[in-house]
Design a protein that fits this description.
The strands form five sheets. Strands 2-10-9-8-7-3-6 form a seven-stranded mixed sheet, sandwiched between helices. About 35% of the residues lie in helices and about 15% in strands. The termini are far apart. By secondary structure, it is α/β, with parallel strands linked by helices.
């Protein structure tokens, strides 16, 4: 008989965002005339930058002619985009990354999930708490985490991110093989300094560990003293893989384009102690399982690196940061402690009550959707994440409603 992967049964019963959707749908059905403002899931709301639309149109025209038609492209991405990424996102900031170390994909979520396929079953993994659920759930599916009990999986080392440590976890006190880090952080909005990031790089080098560094929100960093890439830290090339996305940078959530950086000097070891290039392993994985991102989408992504594209993307990020600033100020004025909203599109709010209880309060009294912190881990209970991804007018209305609801 056909059997399932039993590890799927170890997953928590409901995926966070599915549960949110279910509750919102139930509320909408019971209150059909009530307008709901969504500040929960991190989906953008503004149109693609004009340079991207223009590039899509031109690429579509190319696809309409036999002489310029493109079929299967390289699984790693077209050279025009890989070269633009290397020059603008890394070399311009002193990070030594070459175009052939960049792999274009259809999403950072996919890449952060798929990368774990390369590694052994019995490695020791450290994952922040709270954290974006994909890091943890994909390792559950792979069978590395053990059983779930009392809010946590027994084989995972949880890196607690709390108000006491500024939501930047401390180094583990035990041997670790694989480390997940995300800055600017999802969900807390916290950022990491170069000195603290160097501590993590040094730890990984000393322990022959690998850091999976999610930098999907780096475009929101406005403080130039903060690193936007782990490769700005000396020695990181040898021990880190970085994930980036055009989703929040340029509004590509529905267009789908991202990339992963795997330096050639990044190594892992087999059971006999022989070193292997992770770059070569990832290249083989992609060539086997992925057919590449479409030509028009890659042309649209490359357009953001033109002078006009840089200006339009910066304006788009400024728009969402303006929303974040408004949310943060209003919550602080109501007496709530929060982090994020600066160098990040997310505001992490200490609610002083159960996360889902606060979620229901905002939904029922204000018609506003947030994200319960408990869905991101044990340390997230008592918090909610509020997203800046909406129109400024909707954010203004949402904060007015929230203010009224919380003052009652």
């Amino acid at each position: 008989m056909i059997r399932i992967n039993d590890n799927y049964l170890k997953l928590r019963a409901t995926y966070l965002f599915s549960e949110i959707s279910k509750r919102v749908s139930a509320f909408q059905k019971a209150n059909p005339d009530r307008d709901i403002i969504k500040l929960g899931i991190g989906d953008v709301t503004r149109a693609l930058p004009k340079v991207c639309i223009d590039a899509l149109h031109l690429a579509a025209d190319e696809m309409s002619k036999d002489s310029s038609f493109k079929g299967y492209g390289p699984e790693q991405g077209y050279s025009f985009l890989r070269e633009a990424v290397a020059a603008n996102d890394f070399l311009s900031r002193g990070a030594d990354i070459s175009p052939d170390e960049i792999f274009i994909s259809d999403g950072a979520k996919c890449d952060t999930a798929n990368i774990q396929e390369l590694f052994a079953q019995d490695i020791r993994i450290a994952i922040p708490d709270p954290v974006y659920p994909v890091y943890l759930d994909t390792n559950v599916m792979a069978g590395r985490t053990g059983d779930f009990a009392q809010g946590r999986y027994k084989n995972i080392v949880y890196l607690e991110s709390t108000s006491e440590n500024g939501f930047v976890p401390e180094l583990p006190k035990e041997k670790i093989d694989l480390i997940y880090l995300c800055f600017p952080n999802n969900p807390t909005g916290a950022v990491i300094t170069a000195d603290l990031l160097k501590d993590w790089v040094d730890f990984a080098r000393e322990n022959n560990a690998l850091i999976l560094f999610d930098a999907a929100y780096e475009a929101f960093i406005r403080d130039e003293t903060l690193p936007r890439s782990i490769y700005e830290i000396k020695g990181a090339r040898d021990i880190a893989i970085e994930f980036r996305s055009f989703s929040k940078t340029a509004g590509f959530t529905g267009t789908r384009c991202a990339y992963t950086v795997v330096p050639r000097s990044c190594m892992a070891w087999d059971s006999n102690g022989n070193a292997h290039s992770i770059h070569d392993l990832w290249n083989r994985r992609q060539a086997t399982k992925f057919n590449g991102v479409s030509y028009p989408v890659q042309k649209a992504a490359a357009a953001i690196y033109t002078p006009e594209g840089k200006q339009q993307v910066s304006s788009l990020i400024d728009y969402y940061l303006k929303n974040a600033g408004l949310i943060r100020r209003e919550l602080l004025s109501l007496g709530y402690k929060c982090t994020g909203g600066v160098n990040s599109p997310y505001i992490w709010v200490n609610t002083h009550k159960d996360s889902w209880e606060f979620f229901d309060l905002l939904l029922n009294k204000a018609g506003v959707v947030c994200t319960p912190g408990a869905g991101f881990g044990t340390c997230g209970n008592g918090y909610v994440r509020i997203s800046a991804f909406n129109t400024y007018e909707h954010v203004q209305e949402a904060m007015s409603r929230i203010s009224q609801a919380l003052k009652v």
